[in-house]
Amino acid sequence: MMLAEDSTLLREGLSRLLAEEGHEVAAAVGDGDALVAAVAAAPPDVVVVDVRMPPTHTDEGLRAALEIRRRWPGVGVLVLSQYVEKRYATELITADTTGVGYLLKDRVAQVDEFLDALERVGGGGAAFDPEVVRQLLVRSAHVDPLSRLSPRERDVLDLMAQGHINASIATHLHISQSAVEKHVNAIFDKLDLSQAVGRSRRVLAVLRYLGS
């Protein structure tokens, strides 16, 4: 895996943490261009990248992440951000939800959650911070598609948006997997996604709330 973070202290801390957990950190760099160059030389399974990096500290990391997704679609991308950057999060999610994640940096301190997200992204899954999902799904009542869903369906969709599969959703909500499947199908019906096929329905169900 590779890591891009302009804070030397955080970069070194993450590198040490990941190494202690058995991950090989092939490169740890301080800007987006260096990350893209490192990936070009030897594409890893997954990269962890901060949204804001030099020189302008605006969206260099996010642009590097999107370029990596475009040029090396098999590389998982886990983006870290100090705050919920709605535009950046939406752009990343709408590009593709296979092997992608977006976490707030505070979540890194919760080591088990951070490592779980990293494993999911590296394995081709998705992992989105619950707070990021909550803010992205907020809509006013008169345009909010969530208004058609029951509270339990909202819970299921929230976990879907974080990248959980049905078995994981069942565990989180303490319900059976068959119950989760019923809720998921109800969500598809209420969002008029019944005619879509395969995994695309899950993607569309989430993107419908992101205004895409």
Automatic annotation (TrEMBL):
Residue stretches making up the Response regulatory domain: 1-120
Q: Which GO terms describe its molecular function?
A: DNA binding
SUPFAM superfamilies, per database record? CheY-like
Residue ranges the record marks as coiled coil = none
Q: Which residues carry this modification: 4-aspartylphosphate?
A: 50
Provide the leader sequence positions: none
For this UniProt record, the keywords arranged alphabetically read as follows: DNA-binding, Phosphoprotein, Transcription, Transcription regulation
CDD domains membership: LuxR_C_like, REC_NarL-like
A biological process from GO: regulation of DNA-templated transcription
* Domain of life, source organism: Bacteria
Q: InterPro entries in the record, alphabetically?
A: CheY-like_superfamily, NreC/VraR/RcsB-like_REC, Sig_transdc_resp-reg_receiver, Tscrpt_reg_LuxR_C, WalR-like
Query: Domain HTH luxR-type spans what residues?
Result: 142-204
Name of the protein described by the UniProt record: Response regulator
Which lineage is the organism of this entry classified under, starting from the top rank? Bacteria, Bacillati, Actinomycetota, Actinomycetes, Streptosporangiales
